[in-house]
Amino acid sequence: MTHAPLTRNEYQALVEQSPILIWRARTDALCDYFNERWLSFRGRTLEEEFGNGWTEGVHPDEYDRCVEIYMENFNARRIFEMEYRLKRHDGEYRWIFDRGVPFFTEEGDFAGYIGSCIDVTERVEAQEALKAAQLAEINSLKGLLPICMGCKKIKDDDGYWNQLEVYIRDHSRADFSHGLCPACALEMYGDLAVKAGVR
Predict the structure, then answer these.
(1) Whole-angstrom distance, CA of residue 44 vs CA of residue 34
(2) Tell me: the pLDDT tens digits for 8-46?
(3) CB 9 within 8 A of CB 15
(4) Under CATH, which architecture does the 8-126 domain have?
(5) Which of 2, 12, 84, 119 has the lowest CB atom count within 10 Å?
């Protein structure tokens, strides 16, 4: 069973109505086409995005890295993938996964690049939340203190054993006033504590 190839109109409809952001660059690395989905996402016209205009939407923290990856691979005619934040029409930066592929004429001459992008903000934010949770867990483990099971003294970083309140006082803003809990009062003073009404 043979399948007829897509017509030019079908390809155009596919590219324009795809949920993917699509761009094209000429042999001089300047972009000369963005599909409707890209322009809608950006809230800008083709004229505004034309050439290097699209880079105005790249987050300042990713700008240099983004342009470097783009130009390095463009000059080497290599497929590339990268993630960066791109400003949406409402002013919010969204994480974009961008894949660029070189294309060639039927004669084999380099003709430029075609790129496709998808919004991966939810995935990136989920990964960052996971990293933050893991870091918090690691920091919690780093905060474990060696404490004597018998006298409850704590071993400091220099290997010395300190009374609990001394260690806490030296490592925080806390200070202590001393008293007796009921259990210790009964153990130390027995009936006297009972008669004194210690609870």
Answers:
(1) 10
(2) 665 565 666 667 999 999 999 999 999 999 999 999 999
(3) no
(4) 2-Layer Sandwich (3.30)
(5) 2
